[in-house]
Amino acid sequence: MSKLAGSTNSLAEVGKSKRLQDVPKKIYVLEDVCEEVSTALKRCGLYCKKINANEASHIATSCTDSLFILSDFSSKTFDTVCSSKNWILGPTAVLEQVSNNEPILPRKNPVYCLSMDGFNCFISSKEKEQVIHLMKLIRSMGGSVRAKLSEAMYFIAETTLASGYLYSNTYNIPTLTPQWVDYMWKNRHIPSFKCDDKTFKFFKLKPFRGLYVAFLHFPSDERSHIELLEQNQGVLVDIENPSCTHVVIDDFTLSEQFSKLKERRAQVKFVHAEWFWTCIQLESRVSENDFLFSTESDGNAAAQQTPVIFKSKNSLNWCELMIDPSLRFSLDSSQLLDESRSVQGDCCSNPKCQESHEFILEELLLTEKNYVDVLEAIKLIKEKAENENQTGGPMINVTESKQIFLNTQELLTLHKNILDGIQNARFENKGKKAFSVFCKYSDDLKTQYPKFCNGFEEARKTIRNLCSSNPRFRALLEISKNKPECGRQKLQELIHRPLQRLGSVTLLIKEILDRTDKDCKDKSILEEGLRSVEAALRLMNEELIETEKLSSVFRVYTSIKDCPISRFRKKIAIATLKNKRKEENSGKAEDEVNYKHLQLLPLHKIRKVVDVIDNNDVKDAYGLVVRETLVKDTVWCFRYMNDLENKLSKKDLVIFIAKCLARYECSGDVDKYWVALKPHEVDERLKTSLVPYQSSVKKLLCTVTEHLSPSTSKIARRH
Fold first, then answer.
1. CB within 8 A of 285, min separation 6: which ones?
2. Which of 54, 92, 304, 523 could form a disulfide bond with 113, CB atoms 3.0-4.6 angstroms apart?
3. Could you tell me which residues come within 8 angstroms of residue 166 by beta carbon, excluding any fewer than 6 positions away?
């Protein structure tokens, strides 16, 4: 009540700012009003008189320009005062004005509270009684009702078929149900009560409210669309039901039965399934005009929305063509290639072989274009899901976006460069030199594809979870599926394509190698390109195997109660079944190594490998950046001892240790774990440590791989 005590408004001050006839001559408080109102008025210097209901009716008929404070807006006393030339306020309105240090000013209409003060509403309803009821409540809470929708702040209707609904969505006017007004009125006794965003969302008009929808040609074993319809207050009916308002069709195939049904049910709107999913995505009913199902244009619409490659299940299977040469060369290649163009520098003497080479190059170009289109489609879905300016905000957060789309943006950039290289080689008539582009981007292939494989399973799992828990994201995927760039494929299928791409390229290169003469000068280019792609494939397979191993270990870990997270286990206790004897060397550390000249370096303490570039003073040196404390790192420097037993070079050793670190951190980016520096770039305090550390490489490898998985350790020891 500190604000009430600080209020100093008086009738004199009110008279300065308002017309004299708007200032109440007297203030009457009914006896059923709480005592807090009288106390607040007295603290403001305003005199009020308490009266009962009978006195209020008598005074109201005999005087004017007086203020009555009532707590019951449905009583006979209220009706009597309303019919007189007096003003009415509710106790909540008085307390709100006093607490805000505002003068007690009467209103044109009786006002119980100020919870809707400044709200302009438009009511769209065919029931006159409902309109009058809502209008009375809105005005009693300080709001107003507009006759024009363009002047309103809120649109109130019982159904999405109400007049003005589409206009409200177009101009972002919130659409609310009448229950919102009732909810505000129920809380009229709470001073300064306002609606928050959660409350507005709860009373927002659902997209299918008041609609009776029938589904046609939807999978009979799938009920997710029915559940979404019911969640958005739609009613599922049979197509023959006379109350049916919409028929949603999920098939472009036309039938005579549909034509007859449409003629018989002219008032029903037949729409494509995309209309249904768009309403779910935007959380509002959209206009059906852009999604109407018509017999004249559906054939063309189906052809436009679906690429030729994916137009039906009986279409030509390009994977089979790629694997089985007999299927491919049964086609007339003159229909696909320009016979006047030849591959310059082709050493194959057989004309049929040259023709097959050209066909394979064309197929490489075609499949690379299709693959880039798939990555572009994934990028488009990503941008739509992350768009912050759309209705309802972004569909997924940053973490979910990274889990789903992984490094597809980097893959798109990489394969755009590869596609440009293939097109340039084809334009310059360099023939099989087009495959050299895979050698050029070999390092990028080895980096990006293992990184994608590492999070592929998690991406599929996240998509499944979001489809069941996020209707807007599910609707986006259903809408995108029918787009030409997606080829009737869902995101779950598109995200699988990067795992297949390098395998198809390998088959193409192997096939063209089989049809290339041994003395062909371009054969070495093909073999080098094949090695580059196969190296990336090996890394992908290793990453998939390692991910599966870690997943199995994690499943075991989750099944063990109170299992520590650290991968390095330490002895906790030893149980003995004999008498305790005197301990020897009790001052010795428990984990101390028993070897005099060896020190155990756990892999989790190594942050990075340093390849020290040779100069006149320092040669064959490398270092390990070791984490000593949370804020301090140091470098352990070694000299590489080259002998007959070591088949690895210093660079190979550095990369091997970096791979071990990347595998331990479950990362596909090996380059992040090693760096090449000149001796003077190493910390000056550690330059003196660039002395020969007389230990063989074999001992170092055994030390580094001590804490790797058994399978990894075996691979390391083979070197």
1. 160, 165, 166, 169, 207, 208, 211, 279
2. 92
3. 285, 286, 287
8 Å CB contact between 478 and 488: no
List the end-to-end C-alpha distance of the chain, in Å, as a whole number. 82
Q: Which of 350, 408, 344 is nearest to 376 (CA)?
A: 408
Nearest one of 76, 103, 107 to 90, comparing CA atoms:
107
Residue 63 DSSP label: -
Q: Which pair of structure tokens corresponds to residue 193? A: 């009560």
Reported as type and span, the H/E element at residue 602 is none
Do 108 and 100 touch, CB atoms closer than 8 A?
no
Q: Report how far residue 105's alpha carbon sits from residue 192's, in angstroms, rounded to the nearest whole number.
A: 17
Contacts of residues 417-422 at CB distance under 8 Å and 24 or more positions apart, as own/partner, are 417/441, 418/368, 419/365, 419/368, 419/369, 419/372, 422/364, 422/365, 422/368
Distance (Å, whole) CA 698 – CA 716: 10
SS3 state at 156: strand
User: Cα–Cα–Cα angle for 684, 690, 696, nearest 5°?
Assistant: 150
Those residues with Cβ within 8 angstroms of residue 331's Cβ, 6 or more apart along the chain or in another chain = none
Helix (H, G, I), strand (E, B) or coil at 122: strand
Three-class DSSP labels, 67-80: EEECCCCCCHHHHH
Residue 297 has a CB neighbour count (10 Å cut-off) of 11
**Cα–Cα distance between 692 and 657 in angstroms, integer?**
19
Side-chain-side CA neighbours of 315 within 13 Å: the count stands at: 11
Domains annotated on the chain, with CATH: 26-100 (3.40.50), 120-203 (3.40.50.10190), 212-282 (3.40.50.10190), 354-388+395-547 (1.20.900.10), 597-692 (no CATH)
pLDDT digits (tens, 9 = 90+) for 222-248: 788 888 999 999 999 988 888 999 989
- Kindly report, residue by residue over 547-572, the tens digit of the pLDDT: 777 777 777 777 776 666 655 454 44
* Interval 178-218: pLDDT, tens: 999 999 999 999 988 888 777 888 899 999 999 999 988 88
Q: How many CA atoms lie within 13 A of 621 on its CB side?
A: 25
Among candidate residues 70, 78, 64, the one with its CA nearest the CA of residue 21 = 64
Least confident of 287-296, 347-356, 451-460, 700-709: 700-709
Residues 390, 383: Cα–Cα separation, whole Å? 11
Encoded tokens for 541 = 């397979």
Both tokens assigned to 146 = 């507009």
3-state SS assignment for residue 264:
helix
Token pair recorded at residue 654: 């550095």
- Residues 509, 524: Cα–Cα separation, whole Å: 12
Query: What is the distance between the alpha carbons of residues 117 and 107, in angstroms, rounded to a whole number?
Result: 11
List Cα–Cα distances, 309 to 304, 314, 318, 495, in angstroms: 12, 10, 8, 18
For 666-681, b/e burial (b = at least 16 CB within 10 A) is eebebeebbeeeebee
Among residues 311, 295, 293, which one has the least CA distance to residue 303? 311
For the sheet containing 27-30, what is the strand order? Answer: 49-51, 27-30, 67-69, 87-89
Among the listed residues 343, 369, 366, 362, the one whose alpha carbon sits nearest the alpha carbon of residue 516: 343
What element of type H or E holds 626? strand 621-627
Residue at 633: amino acid letter: D
Distance CA 653, CA 658 (A): 9
The three-class DSSP label of residue 464 is: helix
* Pair 135, 113: CB distance under 8 Å: no
How many whole angstroms separate alpha carbon 468 and alpha carbon 286?
A: 23
Nearest to 142 by CA among 185, 177, 182, 103: 185
Cβ count within 10 A of residue 491: 24
Q: Which residue has the tokens 């044109």?
A: 108
353 CB contacts (<8 Å, ≥6 apart)?
515, 516
pTM for the full model?
0.63
What tokens does 669 get?
């980016």
